[in-house]
Structure formats: structure tokens, C-alpha cells
Design brief:
By secondary structure, the chain is of the alpha/beta class. It has helices at residues 11-21, 39-47, 58-61, 109-117, 132-137, 165-173, 190-209, 215-220, 227-237, 240-243, 246-262; strands at 2-7, 31-36, 53-57, 68-70, 76-78, 84-87, 101-103, 124-126, 143-146, 160-164, 177-185. The strands form two sheets. Strands 1, 2, 3, 4, 5 and 11 form a six-stranded mixed sheet that branches. α1 (11-21) links the parallel β1 (2-7) and β2.
Length: 285
């Protein structure tokens, strides 16, 4: 059986999925047709129900809960790893209402958090996440929300932090920040969905046990990033929540959705958000 799989080119995704894509683990008779795109593009593909399995922003998932269910493995959650709202030093104390603010996509968790922390900011421009720093530096926009590896590079470009939006979330909730998750179509048979979750988990575990094994695959999709930044990226976004959401991870995700509902950004969503796990994570003998 072949399933389409959408992931981003970011090091945490290529690190996590390398083993299952490149046949380093048993994929239990399932093969994967890989689709690599920026996360906001993956969000829009999910809105079209175009992929069997996909990485997507947790905030975007609220719009496809009837079509997709969340896997327990493969997520990006954590602490001290959220989006940053940044600008030039001379604008750090500005009132940003009415200013032009770059965001990495309307349906990203980053934009959701900006809306929660700065509800009066409405003049937003969507950009590819990797272009936001330079847009601020060149004055195309007044400020922007950066994600992924740009946490490690913005200071080197002379930019300063207005707010750590992940820290804002953690202060408000005392929970890890839910950034991105892995979802599978609900119309895929339950047995296959369980297999996929098991495969993703084993792929994460393999990557963590053999970090050098994915180096070339990660580098292939992050050639403009030096190895130090690639490794920092992986260490920041791949953790125990990537192996298994657990109760705290699931609480973080449902809290994000509750925030969105309370602020009337979304209406009622499907109650069964997470793939029910079978007792054993091992394939049947």
C-alpha cells in the first residue's frame, strides 16, 4: 500500500521521517510518496484533503478535524521553542497597531499566537518564513513573526525581540507550545492508521538512537543552513513529545483549540481529535 506523506523541509521533519522514508526501519508493507513543502503550503493542501498523511500547524488542524485525525507520534511541541516577534532596534518600543507585520502564514500557530498577544495588529503580510528576516532588515515590513531556525539567526542580522510568543503561551497556560502535528485521513482504515502511527514512532526513535544516520537527508533539504544551526533546530524541536504526545501534549493541543473557540476564531470542532492508541505499539506476530 502506498500513502502520500507531506512534510516540511525543516531539519526536525527530515530528521524524524528519514528512517521510514529511506527504508531504515520496517514499514510493515506501507510505502510513502513524499511531498515536501513549506508548512503553510501543507496547511492549504490539508484544507483540500490532498494528502493521506501530513504535517500541519496545530492551529490549522481545527479547520480539518472532520477529515483528519491526529497521530500520537511525530509532533513538534516543547518549551522555549515558540515563535518570536522581532523588529529593528529603533522600532522595538513602537506601537505596532497599523504597522505592516510579516507572518509565516495565516493558518500557522505563530499567527494565532500573535493574534492572541497583540489582538489590535491587523495589517499582516504573509511570507515564506525564511524571507521574513530580510524583509524586516530591508524595511519592506516593520516587524515580523519568525519560526524554525530563524530563532538562531535573527540577532546576527541586527534584529531584536519584541516578544517570545512561545513564552507568552507558556506563561498563560503552563503547558508546552503545540506547534505542528501529524494528521492522517479519517477514511483510512483504523488498522492502517495504527500502523502508520507505529511506523512514525519507530522512525523518531531510530533517529534519536542514530542521529548521524539522517545527516545527509537533513542536509539535502537544508543546504543553506550550516550544520550547527541544523543540529540546534533538531535539538529544539525533536523531543519526547515527538515520540509520544502523552497526556500533557494532548492537553496542550486541546488548550490551543479552546483558546481559539473562546476568541471566536473557530466554531465547534470534532470531539475525537486524537487517534485512539491500541495497547501494543508492536505489530502483531
Amino acid at each position: 500500500m502506498k500513502l502520500t506523506l507531506g512534510i516540511s523541509p525543516c531539519p526536525n521533519d527530515t530528521f524524524i521521517f528519514d528512517a521510514m522514508i529511506n527504508n531504515k526501519i520496517d514499514t510493515e508493507g506501507i510505502s510513502f510518496e513524499l511531498v515536501i513543502n513549506d508548512v503553510e503550503k501543507l496547511n492549504t493542501l490539508a484544507f483540500r484533503h490532498a494528502l493521506d498523511i501530513t504535517k500541519l500547524s496545530y492551529y490549522s488542524y481545527v479547520y480539518v478535524t472532520n477529515q483528519y485525525v491526529l497521530l500520537d507520534a511525530g509532533s513538534a511541541l516543547g518549551k522555549n521553542c515558540g515563535p518570536l516577534f522581532v523588529t529593528k532596534p529603533e522600532k522595538q518600543k513602537s506601537d505596532f497597531e497599523g504597522r505592516v507585520i510579516a507572518i509565516p502564514g495565516k493558518y500557522t500557530t505563530a499567527n494565532f499566537l500573535l493574534s492572541m498577544a497583540f489582538p489590535r495588529i491587523t495589517n499582516k503580510v504573509e511570507m515564506l518564513f525564511s524571507e521574513i528576516e530580510n524583509a524586516i532588515v530591508h524595511g519592506t515590513v516593520d516587524a515580523g513573526v519568525i519560526i524554525h531556525e530563524n530563532r538562531f539567526t535573527y540577532q546576527g542580522k541586527g534584529l531584536v525581540k519584541i516578544m517570545d510568543l512561545g513564552e507568552y503561551w507558556e506563561t498563560q497556560t503552563r503547558l508546552p507550545i503545540p506547534l505542528g502535528g501529524i494528521a492522517i485521513k479519517r477514511n483510512i482504515p483504523a488498522e492502517i492508521a495504527q500502523k502508520v502511527n507505529r511506523i512514525v514512532r519507530k522512525s523518531v526513535e531510530y533517529a534519536l538512537a542514530h542521529p548521524a544516520a539522517s545527516r545527509e537527508f537533513v542536509r539535502c533539504y537544508a543546504q543553506e543552513m550550516n550544520e550547527i544551526v541544523r543540529n540546534q533546530h533538531i535539538q529544539l524541536y525533536v523531543n519526547n513529545y515527538s515520540v509520544n504526545l502523552g497526556d500533557i501534549g494532548k492537553q496542550a493541543v486541546t488548550t490551543l483549540f479552546a483558546w481559539a473557540q473562546r476568541n471566536k476564531l473557530i466554531h465547534k470542532i470534532n470531539e475525537n481529535l486524537f487517534l485512539p492508541l491500541v495497547e501494543s505499539l508492536e505489530p502483531p506476530a
